[in-house]
């Protein structure tokens, strides 16, 4: 099972939007509505930000949103804030009780 | 409140085994699955495997098949991950995570395993 492909880095100024892609195959991202996104600050455990492609858990700001088209899922952070600077990982169900993470994207707030 | 508390850091020699524990509290332990995820220094997250809440079946990543064993003790509300035949590349932070379906909603604090001769 190969890792899902994410861009190594993304950046934006405060108030701007940034979108991170997560590309897989029809056997994982494209085949199921089970893509989730995690935020990880340095030295901390990951935090769930989006699940089942576009659902936001309680406590996650509305500026975080998710979508999917074909084999690519996306996370958009609107109205960037300094505290959004972190690493972001996507994850997908990959069939046959297997799961896979993305390669990770470092988001920098300029 | 939901908590997953993992055991402390370990230093192991190549070829040895390590067993990491994950003590759950604040929820009905057997109603959720537990996954194990690792992160090598400066690297991304890597899924290792999980133990299913319903039937206690396990599934392991092909990469770790034959070297990893995930178990749980319901009376102790604790999950375990044992990794054998350790090599230097296994040096990483190991996380347990509670899951509902395909979503990891709560994570442990991580356990650093260092493999060094």
What is the helix fraction of residues of chain B, given as a range? under 10%
As a whole number of angstroms, the C-alpha radius of gyration of chain A is 13 Å
Give the terminus-to-terminus CA distance of chain A: 35 Å
Overall shape of chain B = globular
Helices and strands of chain B, in N-to-C order?
Answer: EEEEEEEEEEE
Q: What is the number of E strands of chain B? A: 11
Order of helices and strands of chain A: EEEEEEEEE
How large is the count of helical segments of chain A? 0
**Biggest contact:** A-B, 27 and 24 residues
Q: What integer is the average pLDDT of chain B?
A: 95
Structural account:
The complex is a heterodimer of chains A (110) and B (117). Chain A is mainly beta and 110 residues long. Chain A is 0% helix and 44% strand. Chain A has strands at residues 9-12, 18-23, 35-40, 47-50, 64-69, 72-77, 86-93, 99-101, 105-109. In chain A, the strands form two sheets. In chain A, strands 1, 3, 4, 7, 8 and 9 form a six-stranded mixed sheet that branches. The N and C termini of chain A lie far apart (35 Å). The mean pLDDT of chain A is 96. In chain B, strands 2, 4, 5, 6, 9, 10 and 11 form a seven-stranded mixed sheet that branches. In chain B, β4 (33-39) and β5 (45-51) form a beta hairpin. The radius of gyration of chain B is 13 Å and the shape is globular. The mean pLDDT of chain B is 95. The termini of chain B are far apart. Chain B is an all-beta fold and 117 residues long. The A-B interface holds A 1, 3, 32, 34, 36, 38, 40, 45-48, 51-52, 57, 89, 91-93, 96-104 and B 35, 37, 44-47, 50, 52, 57, 59, 61-63, 95, 97, 101-105, 107-110.
Present the secondary structure layout:
The complex is a heterodimer of chains A (110) and B (117).
Chain A: E1 9-12, E2 18-23, E3 35-40, E4 47-50, E5 64-69, E6 72-77, E7 86-93, E8 99-101, E9 105-109
Parallel strand pairs in A: 1-9
Antiparallel strand pairs in A: 2-6, 3-4, 3-7, 5-6, 7-8, 7-9
Chain B: E1 3-6, E2 10-12, E3 18-25, E4 33-39, E5 45-51, E6 58-60, E7 68-73, E8 78-83, E9 92-100, E10 103-107, E11 111-115
Parallel strand pairs in B: 2-11
Antiparallel strand pairs in B: 1-3, 3-8, 4-5, 4-9, 5-6, 7-8, 9-10, 9-11
């Amino acid at each position: 099972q190969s890792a899902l492909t994410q861009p190594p880095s993304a950046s934006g100024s405060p108030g701007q939007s940034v979108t991170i892609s997560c590309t897989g195959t029809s056997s994982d991202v494209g085949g199921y509505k089970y893509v989730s996104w995690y935020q990880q600050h340095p030295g901390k455990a990951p935090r769930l930000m989006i699940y089942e492609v576009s659902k936001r858990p309680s406590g996650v700001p509305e500026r975080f949103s998710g979508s999917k088209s074909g084999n690519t899922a996306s996370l958009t952070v609107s109205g960037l804030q300094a505290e959004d600077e972190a690493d972001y990982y996507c994850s997908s169900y990959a069939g046959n009780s297997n799961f896979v993470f993305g390669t990770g994207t470092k988001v920098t707030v300029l | 409140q939901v908590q997953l508390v993992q055991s402390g850091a370990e230093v192991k020699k190549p070829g040895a085994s390590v067993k990491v524990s994950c003590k759950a509290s604040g929820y009905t332990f057997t109603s959720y699955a537990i996954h194990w995820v690792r992160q090598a220094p400066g690297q991304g997250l890597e899924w290792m495997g999980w133990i299913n809440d319903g039937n206690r079946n396990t599934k392991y990543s092909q990469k770790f098949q034959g070297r990893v064993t995930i178990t749980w003790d319901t009376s102790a509300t604790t999950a375990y991950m044992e990794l054998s035949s350790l090599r230097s590349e296994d040096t990483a932070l190991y996380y347990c995570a509670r899951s509902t379906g395909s979503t990891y909603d709560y994570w442990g604090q991580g356990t650093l395993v260092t493999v060094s001769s």
